[in-house]
Amino acid sequence: MTFRSSRKRTAGKAKEAVTEQVSDRTDDLVAALDAAREALARAYAAAGRKGAELGAELGKQASEAADKLMPERARQRRRDAARRRNRKLVAGAAGLTLLGVAFSRLAGGKGDRERLEGQAEHDAGWVAESTSDAGPVPSAEVTQLHGNGSGADAARTPPAN
């Protein structure tokens, strides 16, 4: 019986050793598979970038060849591109101008402030004159603006000093 149990122990140890080896190799294979997937992803990305660069270069060469074959079409395309650029610039400038006008209206200009201050001073002076009893206001000289229609009207000519 002792012979049988030693075989079981030996078989069990061998089974554990094989299981551990299989597990180690499986782990190594999974790691290698992950590394291969990452390498493939990098290769696809590099190929895509290179393909895009080559495609852009090929498109540029094709466009230049078409420009040589059809110069009028190339001129028209350049004009259209210039119009689009100018339209964008004008739209941007108009937007900035509108923004500036709106800001100046909200902030109030310097002339508006001065005019309002002057009007306030004038109104304060008028109120002060109307409340004071300084006496009658001297009469002002009146000049006739419209004559009887004759050419040299004496009322229209300034007095000679």
Q: What is the helix/strand order?
A: HHH
**Tally the helices: what do you get?**
3
Q: Whole-number radius of gyration?
A: 49 Å
Helix fraction bin:
over 70%
Q: Major β-sheet, in short? A: none
What is the strand and helix layout of this fold?
Blueprint: H1 2-69, H2 71-107, H3 110-131
Helix pairs in contact: 1-2
Structure description:
The chain has 161 residues and is mainly alpha-helical. It folds into two domains: 1-69; 71-123. It contains three helices and no strands. It has helices spanning 2-69, 71-107, 110-131. Helix 1 packs across helix 2. It is elongated, with a radius of gyration of 49 Å.
Descriptive key words:
mainly alpha; 161 residues; 2 domains; single chain
Tell me briefly what this model is.
This protein is mainly alpha-helical and 161 residues long. It is 79% helix and 0% strand. It folds into 2 domains: 1-69; 71-123.
